[in-house]
Design goal:
Blueprint: H1 10-23, H2 27-39, H3 45-64
Length: 82
């Protein structure tokens, strides 16, 4: 793999790692993350970011494997609210 190119199979793994980290982080990390998001005018908070990481990972996996359920199938998407 060329260091300048991100392998398509690696991106869902990285998204999954970030999703797991933020989903299980302590409240202090969530407060810091919320501060960073608000500085970028994103008011959804840490839960929003965790959900977006999960949805993006699912969309990438579905694009690479048409047998996977689509994001329109809400039962296929595990988010923090589940």
């Amino acid at each position: 793999m060329d260091p300048g190119e991100l392998d398509d199979d690696l991106l869902p793994t990285i998204l999954g790692i970030c999703e797991d980290f933020f989903a299980h982080a302590d409240p202090a990390v969530h407060r810091e993350l919320d501060t960073v998001l608000r500085a970028r005018h994103i008011s959804g908070g840490p839960g929003w970011l965790i959900d977006m990481l999960a949805l993006t990972r699912l969309r990438l996996q579905t694009a690479n494997d048409p047998e996977q359920p689509t994001a329109e199938d809400q039962s296929a998407v595990k988010t923090r609210g589940d």
